[in-house]
Write a structure and sequence with these properties.
By secondary structure, the protein is mainly alpha-helical. It is about 60% helix and about 10% strand. It has 2 domains: about 45 residues, no CATH class; about 80 residues. Bound molecules: zinc ion (ZN). The site of zinc ion has 8 residues, from helix 4.
Length: about 180
């Protein structure tokens, strides 16, 4: 099994694919390293904790604030208040379910994106950095077999219908939580 087959198989089975940089053959001039870096900067900006909690405007500074920010986009106090309220109203379980399905939804969207990218790239080169200092890379050329493309398209269809199911469940849970 060659590398892009393994990559797709991992995607289809929901496994974390091996980290590889894919470069399309007609985009040889592009520097993949630069793209990876700017993507990372963008992600880091989204992940990094802001100074103030967007919900209560309190200054966020503790480790707990940081943890809660990453998980729930608000500070530790806000999370405690929310959990207390949910327990009092007996909605904690529903809220936890919602958290689970939200994660599931994000994962499905990510898998879809990966498969779409993979399909769009078609025949490609896989560039593996060999020596970071000299910039020497190992390049492998691959032609995607049609069977794999069909399999990917089927997987996309399945992911779409799963996504619909998850969205329906989320809507129901949201209705039960009154948009909490
Ligand atoms: Zn807060």
């Amino acid at each position: 099994m060659n590398q892009e087959d393994r990559y797709l198989r991992d995607l289809l089975t929901g496994k974390e694919p091996e980290k590889k940089i894919f470069v399309s053959m007609n985009e040889e001039k592009k520097k993949p390293k630069g793209n990876v870096e700017s993507d990372l900067t963008k992600i880091m900006q989204e992940v990094r904790m802001p100074w103030f909690c967007p919900k209560c405007n309190k200054v966020m500074k503790s480790r707990l604030d940081d943890k809660m920010w990453k998980l729930f986009d608000h500070c530790f106090d806000c999370q405690q208040q929310l959990e207390h309220k949910l327990r009092v109203t007996g909605k904690y379980e529903i809220w936890e379910k919602k958290k689970f399905y939200k994660n599931r939804k994000a994962a499905i969207i990510e898998q879809k994106e990966s498969i779409n990218n993979w399909l769009q790239q078609g025949d490609m080169e896989i560039v593996e950095p060999v020596n970071v200092d000299t910039g020497y890379v190992h390049v492998e050329k691959h032609v995607v077999p049609d069977g794999m493309k069909d399999e990917a398209k089927d997987a996309l269809k399945e992911l779409d219908s799963t996504l619909l199911e998850v969205e329906t469940i989320l809507k129901e849970l949201n209705a039960e939580l009154d948009g909490e």
